[in-house]
Amino acid sequence: MSNKSQTTDQLTHTELTLTPAGHSLHPPARRPRRTDAQANEELILAAAQQLFAAHGVESVTMSAIAAAAGLGKGTLYRAFANKGELCLALMDDDLRRFQEETLQLLAARRTMPTLDLLADFLDRLVFFMAHHAGLMCEADAHGALNGRAEVNQTSLHDWFHTTVTLLLRQAMHETALPPETDIAYLADAILALFNPKLLRHQLQVDQRDPAAISQHLRRFVMTGISGQSRG
User: CB 3.0-4.6 Å disulfide test: which of 42, 65, 148, 196 passes with 153?
Assistant: First the structure.
């Protein structure tokens, strides 16, 4: 097996098995929840989903969600500390699916140049975030994208950053990037372009579709990387 295949296998099957939004493909054992607590959580999520669809994520209050679910605000806040956590929970299934599909994509295309894999990942990330723009903005506003340190939670941002970082390291291994490249800074700079509020502005105010945003963003990133590789 070539060095590239060995490195990419490690990247796709080992190092990227991290946890979006604090959840992994094989989540650790959790403290069991009482049946009534689980039922309340399901009521809350269903009510929130209906209200968000009808009125938009930003305009719906936690009080309105509690009332629609037929629960007290104390019960609501025991389930979700803030609206950002609730929004993240609504994305949970899609986040898991996005992670699984990303790992499968990287594994299936491991013979491709890694910068092409990075471009593919960024394209998928644009469409994912565009689809969940309202939820992502609300989660970001409450710090939910950064996880919860008190429960040793790996954040969604951490997973995005780790994915981009490992792809950049592999690109350096392929000499597509110079060895002195500051990989951590470059990953930060790339992900800064994925600010949820910026993306929502491009979608709603600038009236750009996700395909156009992805095309311009990937061209900008790849041109910058190419310029860096030329020194």
Answer: 148
Asked if residue 220 lies in contact with residue 194, where contact means CB atoms within 8 angstroms, the answer is no
| pLDDT interval class at 8 (50, 70, 90) | very low
Please name the residue that has the structure tokens 């860096």: 228
What are the domain boundaries of the chain?
3-24+91-229
HSE toward the beta carbon, residue 110, CA cutoff 13 A? 17
Q: Cα–Cα distances in Å, from 185 out to 113, 163, 165? A: 21, 14, 9
Count of C-beta atoms within a 10 Å radius of residue 216: 14
- Token pair, residue 88, equals 């993240």
The CA distances from residue 40 to 35, 73, 98, 148, in Å, are 9, 12, 27, 22
